[in-house]
Amino acid sequence: MNFLSLDRQAMARALSMGEAIEALRQALAPAMADGVQVPPRTIMTLGDSAESNQVLVMPAALPLAQAVAVKVSTITPDNPRHGRPLIHALVILLSSQTGEILALMEGAHLTALRTGAMAGLATDLLARPASRVLAVIGAGVQARSQIEAVCAVRPIEQLLLHSRSLDKARALAAWVSDRGLCPQVMVTDSVARAVRMADVICTATSTASAEPLVRAADVRPGTHINAIGGVDEIACEIDPLLLGQAAVYVEERDAALREAGELIQSLRLGVLMPGDVQEIASLLGGSVVPRGTASSLFKSVGTAIQDVAVAAALLRSARTKGLGTRVSL
């Protein structure tokens, strides 16, 4: 058995955020849907509390890439409080033609890259072209990828950051400035102050609470929101009332209605109906036009097809650039 092993450093050199966004744009187009397989993810919860650890197994097949990916991931909500990553993951990429293992990839980087790329694609499809102010709630790895992605598709001039950890928010601000992603970066002392002037809002937190972080009253009409955090179906980053005022998009409707706390609460309150929730891929085929509404919201719970699409693009680029380590077992 012979395959390529890619750590996060090799992956970062292999594929840019813009390239990852384009890989998803191609893979999610309705014309590419034939033969795509995304079985329901297996979720094993290790406890009975709202902050219990979880193990997830997510397979998917993408004929466009002639590839199958299986991701094994853990979510440990208590980890960030002890200086450890929230997510640990590993991705196995296989050939759908021969069954061979093609590559083994560090999964946390791939998860952050494809999650950011998905939010970048949603922003490109839904946010106003002249959006210049970005607010980000959260200061972990996922927040970094959200910033990279939005800055790749919109001319962001000002970034407003908020995190419950001031030190992490300041570290993220320094990271953004060092990379020249945005000319003006500010750390705010509240969520409300971060989002009130934003054209685009990204929430990337590890909250397990049903109490929303972003209130509807603090969001300007016309704002686009990417909500990608929360650890389970109880967690709620965005005020459910806001979903009743916005065009709501998800990756997969059935999965989102089961797993997204904001959607579950909005449906329970009666401010949102299942038919109001659209799949983001519909915008790529031109079959759905965003309704005439003040705001738009993309709620991500993730789908394994994103892993396959970005992993296949990573492998192609890594081979071209001579990156990674060849492993024989």
Describe, in plain words, how this protein is organized in 3D.
There is one protein chain. The protein is α/β, with parallel strands linked by helices and 329 residues long. Helix content is 34%, strand content 25%. The protein has an 8-stranded parallel sheet. A 7-stranded mixed sheet has the order 2-3-4-5-6-1-15. Helix 1 (8-14) crosses helix 11. The radius of gyration is 19 Å and the shape is globular. The model has no long low-confidence stretch (mean pLDDT 92).
How is the topology of this model organized?
Blueprint: E1 2-6, H1 8-14, H2 17-28, E2 42-46, E3 53-62, E4 67-75, E5 87-95, E6 101-106, H3 107-126, E7 133-137, H4 141-153, E8 158-162, H5 166-178, E9 184-187, H6 191-195, E10 200-203, E11 224-227, H7 240-243, E12 246-250, H8 253-259, H9 261-269, E13 277-279, H10 281-285, E14 295-299, H11 304-321, E15 325-328
Parallel strand pairs: 1-6, 7-8, 7-10, 8-9, 10-11, 11-14, 12-13, 12-14
Antiparallel strand pairs: 1-15, 2-3, 3-4, 4-5, 5-6
